[in-house]
Amino acid sequence: xxxxxxxxxxxxxxxxxxxxxxxxxxxxxxxxxxxxxxxxxxxxxxxxxxxxxxxxxxxxxxxxxxxxxxxxxxxxxxxxxxxxxxxxxxxxxxxx
Length: 96
Known about the structure:
Layout: H1 20-29, H2 38-47, H3 51-61, H4 65-70, H5 72-94
Protein name: DUF3263 domain-containing protein
Pfam families: DUF3263
Organism: Actinophytocola xanthii
């Protein structure tokens, strides 16, 4: 398994209430992906789970207060992206 950037790279103290896996997920989400499919492949290799399951965990994680304390900029960005996707799905359902 490839090493991930440390959750402490942001200069913030890690929060004891987050698991090691949750800190790894936050570190992983800080990365940017240039090619389509590359992130999904990395999820399978690094976390040994499907991208669907991974994103379920991400959505639960970004609602945690502890995650906001560890990396507020990242969590806010992920929440904005999630809200945008929810609005787009809602608009498709209502035909707007």
